[in-house]
Amino acid sequence: MPLMPITQPLTQLPFSQACENNKAPILAVLTQAFSLNQHVLEIGSGTAQHAVYFAANLPHLIWQTSDQAEYIEVITARCMNEGKLPNAAANLRLPLTLDVTVPWPVEGLTSDIDGVFTANTLHIMSKNMVEAFFTGLGLYLPQLKTLCIYGPFNYQGEFSSDSNRQFDAFLKQRDPASGIRDIEWICSLASEQGLTLKQDVAMPANNRLLHFVRG
């Protein structure tokens, strides 16, 4: 059913300039990657800027937002505020509370979710959380066909740019368990869930978009 508007103005919600900068290049890849999908779960919707943009521009999809409990209010507010706009996306769904380290919510995770998108999440997770993310895909989404991951990655243990090296140092200073992940490890975890890397696309600011498919 259509989202109902709320009174909290968009200008008072958290805003990510990086999301605004990268949403169009990401959409260009998702348009092809999710062309045969019907229902996408976004894990870690954050400010929900990506969600409202992708839902509006991928009308053939249901776009299901989700995140940890502390972010649900912001995501809900942005999604519901978008209901005021003339071009509001009827295919945008309010967020599920989802923590990859605990059993995922049963209610809302319907059997027709066949795609997953996540952006800038794996490098802020611990290694155990990254492993739990992929294990969860196999446990709770056995019907998954497509997985798209956006963010920075290392190759053969090496940083792809000086800025990524500096970013990794910043991440580890804030949380020693976080850090930019090796793409080889990510592909290995995906392979354990029957997912194969189809595309590794260069993106702005030394990021990548990894497009995995099952089968």
Index terms:
7-stranded mixed sheet; 215 residues; Rossmann fold; globular; 6 helices; alpha/beta; disordered N terminus
In angstroms, what separates the terminal alpha carbons? 33 Å
Give the overall form.
globular
CATH fold group: Rossmann fold
Q: Please, what is the CATH homologous superfamily?
A: Vaccinia Virus protein VP39
Report the biggest beta sheet as strand number plus sense, adding barrel if it closes.
7 strands, mixed
| SSE topology string | HEHEHEEHEEHEHEE
Overall structural class, as computed from helix and strand content, comes to: alpha/beta
- Count structural domains: 1
Cα radius of gyration in angstroms:
17 Å
Q: Report the strand count.
A: 9
CATH architecture: 3-Layer(aba) Sandwich
Number of helices: 6
Q: Report low-confidence residues grouped into runs of 5 or more.
A: 1-7
Level of helix content? Answer: 25-40%
Q: What strand order characterises the main sheet?
A: 3-2-1-4-5-9-8
Could you tell me the strand content as a percent range? 15-25%
